Amino acid sequence: MSEYPVTEDEDGAEDLAPLTLPLDAWHRERGARMVEFAGYMMPVQYEGIMAEHLWTRENAGLFDVSHMGQLEVSGEGAAAALEALLPGDISALKPGRQRYSLLLDENGGILDDLMVTNRGGEYYLVVNGATKWDDIAHLREHLPDEITLNHLDEHGLLALQGPKAAEALGRLGLEPAFPGMPRLDDLKFMQAAPFFWDGRPLGVSRSGYTGEDGFEISVRGEDIAALAEALAAQDAVKPIGLGARDSLRLEAGLPLYGHDLSPETDPASAELGFAISKRRRAEGGFMGADTVLPLLSQGPARRRVGLVLDGRMAAREGAQVVVNGQEVGIVTSGGFSPSLQKPIAMAYVDSAKAAEGTPLTIAMRGKLLDAMVVPMPFVSHRYHR
C-alpha cells in the first residue's frame, strides 16, 4: 500500500484513483463484489450479507482490513507525547496491553477513534482507513521532533472473528516470537503479542469490531495471501465482506467513524467517557480537555443511544428523530439486525430523551416509524476475558 495514484479528469482536475488491497486478486477469485470504501477497492460481500453475518456469529469470519492505518510511535517520552494528543492513560498501559482511545482536536471534536498497543519499546496504533492520512499529518504536526512516527504501509491487517476463531488460528501452530512471551491461548481480550508462523512474523491482538471473540493480525504484505489461504482453507472459516462487518458492529453497539463519530461529536455525547481514565479526567493535559472535561462532568446536550424499531423497515443515516413533530435527534447508523430479526439504529438525541425506554419516532421516507431507546450492545459481547 502506498500513496494515492493521481489521475486527471476531462477538465484537467486531479482525481484520486482507489487503491487496491494486497489481497485484491484473492478476493476477486472468491467471487467478492468489490466496492470503493475509504479510498480502496474492498469486498462488500461474497455470498450475501445476511449469510456472512450469521456465519461469523456461529463460526469464524475472515475480514481483510488492510485499508486501516498501522502506525508505530517510538522514542523517549513517547507515552507522554501521545497523552498530549489522546485522552487515554497511555503511560499506565503495560507491555502487551491494548487500549481504545480517541484523537481529538482543540475543541474536543473526535478526529478519529483508534487502538493503542504497548509493544514494549514502542506504541502501535491502528487508525481508520478513511482518516489515516489526516491522522498521520496531525500526529507529525503535534508530536515532538524526538518522537518517531513510522507508517507500516507494507503491512496488511486481517481480522478473524467469531466463536471458532481461536480454534482456527490455533491450528496454524503460531509460536511466541521470544522466550517468555504468552502463547496464543494465553491472550485475553485487549492483549497482544508477537508470533512466528512458519518463520513469518505476525503481530496478534485479541480484539476486533464484531462483539465476538477474535483476533486482529498484522502481517507483512508479502505474507498476507499465504495466511489468508491457510485460514480460509479451514471448514470453520469463510471470508466476510464489509456489509456483514457493518451489521455485526452495529449489533455490538460499536460506533463507526464518519457516521457515528466525527469532529462535530465529542467523547461525552458519543458515550465514550470510558476511554478517559480517572487520572486523565483529574489532570487533563490532552488536546480538547478544556471542552471535554466539563461535558463529562455536567453532561452533553445530546447523547448517542440505541434504538429498536417496530415493524420491519430500517432507519437509515440522516433520518430525523422526532417527538410530537419536533426534531430531537438524528440517526447516524441503522439497519436490519440479522441476529435479532428486527431493525435497530444508533442516533444522537437530546439528553432529555435519551433514557432507556423512551418512546421516539423516526421520520423515514415519508413514513413515521415507532422506536424505543434501548441499552447497547443490542447483541451481548462475547469477548474472551
TrEMBL record:
Pfam families according to UniProt:
GCV_T, GCV_T_C
According to UniProt, the reaction catalysed is: N(6)-[(R)-S(8)-aminomethyldihydrolipoyl]-L-lysyl-[protein] + (6S)-5,6,7,8-tetrahydrofolate = N(6)-[(R)-dihydrolipoyl]-L-lysyl-[protein] + (6R)-5,10-methylene-5,6,7,8-tetrahydrofolate + NH4(+)
Query: What does the record give as EC number?
Result: 2.1.2.10
Q: What class of enzyme is it?
A: transferase
InterPro entries, alphabetically? GcvT (IPR006223), GcvT/YgfZ/DmdA (IPR028896), GcvT/YgfZ_C (IPR029043), GcvT_C (IPR013977), GCVT_N (IPR006222), TrmE/GcvT-like (IPR027266)
Tell me which family the UniProt entry assigns to this protein.
Answer: Belongs to the GcvT family.
- Name-wise, this protein is aminomethyltransferase
Q: Tell me the lineage of the source organism.
A: Bacteria, Pseudomonadati, Pseudomonadota, Alphaproteobacteria, Sphingomonadales
Gene name tied to this protein: gcvT
